[in-house]
Amino acid sequence: MASREFLKILQSARLGDVSAQQNLASAYLTGALKTPIQPANALIWLEKSYLSITNQVVNDSSEGASEVPEIDAFPPKMLGILKQISLVPLGLTFNSPAFSFGWESFWRLAKADINVSNAAKWQLAELLLDPSKKVLQGELAEWLLKQESDLDLSALQKTAKEFLLQLAESETPFTNLAKELLIKLQPKDEALSSLWSAWLSEKNEGALVQAAELGLTIAKLTLGLRLAQLNEVGSDTKDSIGASGVKSNASLKKAAYWLGLAAKDGDRDAWFALGEIYRRPQFSGYNASESDRCFDRAADLGHPVAQFRRGANLWRKREKVEEKVRGLQASYWIWQAHQQGVPEAKELLSKVLENVASPKNNDWFELATYAEKALNHHAEHQLDEEWILLCHRLIVANQFNLSKAELLLCEVGQLQHEHCVVVDIRHELPKILPRLIQIDTTQQRRSLLAAGKVFASSDADLEGNLRQRRYRFDRVTEWLASTFGQNQVVA
Questions:
Q1: pLDDT digit string (tens) for 154-212?
Q2: pLDDT digits over 446-456, tens only?
Q3: 473 contacts 394 by C-beta, under 8 angstroms
Q4: CA distance 166 to 189
Q5: Which of 24, 159, 233, 240 has the largest CB neighbor count within 10 A?
Q6: Distance CA 206, CA 211 (A)
Q7: Do residues 294 and 274 make contact, with C-beta atoms less than 8 angstroms apart?
């Protein structure tokens, strides 16, 4: 219910009291005197007051001019009401009887060189350019058509953009608002780039948060790391992430939120940091299983420390892990970490994989050398296919220092994995344990590739059983020694 004072002011305003009309408009704008906030009503009373003062100014003119003077030449009383008009939220008055008056007044104010022009410029720029007001802008375009205006919405938006740039470059209460709206109007990539640059050069926290909210993955990650007090990640290189300091549960929750968003974008550092957070005792969401899942995801995406941790865990639990060859999974992840320069990986890798990178010191070196010569001139020597297969076995055996049983029985086409050779002959000799041998040299890979091609195109039963292979091995090695060993002496 309206107060008595409000009703008294309303009565005076209706009788034409200019001061009462302005007080009534102020009440509708601020909610004073228990008045509901109604910008449209405020603008109606400001229009009445403005017209009254304008008529008075014209009548008091010494020259008796019938035209309203320019805004710059208005008396103080007139400037006071213009200031009030500039405070009216113009967008909320659309479709009201006084909107036309407000629209024209704001444009006149914006183009005038007076103090209140900045407020008018900002309101017009926000109304015409803010992406969140697309619907209202469409309705305004239709209204302009009905007014038979010479200017369409696009032309007015161009002018509003100029107002916005002026505000952003000056020192006014609307400068920061103008800069934020300009960022919204930029193409997304350009906006993100400018925000991220502001963070890197000025350490502007607001720019970092905005960039994260706009979807920049590196900004989400950096914000999450800062909230969790983990090592920050630079724009060019990403450091290894480790715990540094203790944060409250509330900060860790916020950190987990932003890191979760970055992790969804596929950022490996975000997954690793989430794994760290889920391991923190002060985090209410403490979950060792979820932590392991995050570390595993980071490892899948190539995080070196996560790969080492995964490999080390698998190696510790190798007795419990179900796999055909014990330690194979562990060796893969440790090798991946070693490839990315994790110092601890080298030592652990030496415990998991054998290293035979010097074939010249192996027992098969001489015969392997003869086998290579024979393969290079196999047409000249008219080698049978099974002899060719055995020559390849000799070369592979020398590169990886295999035993005679491994040489004869290994499945050559299945030896190579990405990082190592798996020698497993338990199908014939169950008591001989499998061996994992690291692939270190290009020559080792070439020998495996060449042998693999030959064995893939041959009949699986061509080599026969173990007895037949032994017999062929004796014949082939004797021939290689007599043929190439003798030639070498003569040469």
A1: 889 999 999 999 998 888 889 888 888 887 887 777 788 888 888 999 898 999 998 99
A2: 999 999 999 98
A3: no
A4: 23
A5: 24
A6: 9
A7: yes
- 331: nearest Cα among 352, 310, 313, 317: 352
Q: How far apart are the C-alpha atoms of 336 and 338, rounded to whole Å?
A: 5
CB neighbours of residue 413 within 10 Å: 15
CB 393 within 8 A of CB 448: no
Encoded tokens for 332: 């893969």
Q: Which parts of 250-386 are beta strand (E)?
A: none
Token code pair at residue 189:
């990539």
Pull the structure tokens for residue 202. 């000025």
**What are 37's two structure tokens?**
């906030």
Judge whether residue 72 has pLDDT over 70. no
148: region left, alpha or beta (phi > 0 left; psi from -120 to 50 alpha): left
Q: Please say if the pLDDT value at position 273 is more than 70.
A: yes
Could you tell me what percent of the chain has a pLDDT over 90?
A: 47
- Judged against a pLDDT cut of 50, whether residue 491 lies above it is answered with no
Q: Decide: 57 and 92 in contact? Cβ < 8 Å.
A: no
- With contact defined as beta carbons under 8 Å apart, do 217 and 262 qualify? yes
Percent of the chain with pLDDT strictly greater than 70: 90
Nearest in space to 230 (alpha carbons), one of 199, 254, 204, 195: 254
What dihedral do alpha carbons 348, 351, 357, 358 form, nearest 10°? Answer: 130
To the nearest whole number, what is the mean pLDDT of the chain? Answer: 86
Report whether 247 contacts 282 (CB < 8 A): yes
Look at residue 457 and tell me whether its pLDDT is greater than 70. Answer: yes
CA distance 131 to 136: 10
At 128, give phi and psi (nearest 5°).
-90, -20
Q: Which residue has the tokens 């209202």?
A: 136
Tokens representing 34 are: 């228990």
Checking if the pLDDT of 459 tops 90, the result is no
How many helices (H) and strands (E) the chain has is answered by 25, 2
State the maximum Cα–Cα separation within the chain, in Å, rounded to a whole number: 131
d(CA 398, CA 300): 34
Say if residues 221 and 298 touch (Cβ distance below 8 Å).
no
Q: What is the DSSP letter of 416?
A: B
Residue 181 has a pLDDT of 87
DSSP letters of 382-393?
T--HHHHHHHHH
Write out pLDDT tens, residues 316-373. Answer: 988 888 888 889 999 999 999 999 999 999 999 999 999 887 888 888 999 999 999 9
Q: How far is CA 118 from CA 30, 163, 189, 267, 342, in A?
A: 21, 8, 29, 44, 58
DSSP 229: T
Amino acid at position 412, single letter: V
